[in-house]
Amino acid sequence: MQLKPLESQECENVNRVFIVDLQSQDPKEQHRLYAKIITSALLLSYGIRKGTAICIRLPRGWLVAHGGKVRRLFADESSSTGLVRAAMRHGFHSGISVETSCIYANCCRSELDIEEMCEVDQGRNLSSPICIRLRPSNHEVDVHGYRVAVWYLIAIINIILDILGFNT
């Protein structure tokens, strides 16, 4: 697996950053899980897609999807999993890359965890780019006593941010 550093000018093109720190994962299921996370963050609308980045912690490095650069991403699991596999095999493929770090984490002006996300309203002044950090356990995040799959939660957060007028 080839690692390459990320260019700092990428910060200018991003409004939302999802940083996903997976605690444990089944090696047989990892590509499928990464693909679900990426598609849930990028496929709601083109506006969301072009201003969103996703960083997924790997055992060594980060899998980073640059929303505005991702090509040939479809909702079906087999094609999205294929993109992830190709990126992990070659270091970069179609806007998804393996990086030494997630520079987007250093770009963020506002940062929310899931508890803050549940309570955010229009009165809160959010500066772009905003970071949403998720630390799922067994692919789920606890939200006020409910266990929600991380890929569903990312889609819900994107919808909430759009409703609140936090446009990308």
UniProtKB/TrEMBL annotation:
The keyword Transmembrane applies. Keywords: Membrane, Transmembrane, Transmembrane helix. The chain crosses the membrane at residues 148-166. SUPFAM superfamilies: alpha/beta knot (SSF75217). InterPro entries: Alpha/beta_knot_MTases (IPR029028), tRNA_m1G_MTases_N (IPR029026). This is Uncharacterized protein. It comes from Ignisphaera aggregans.
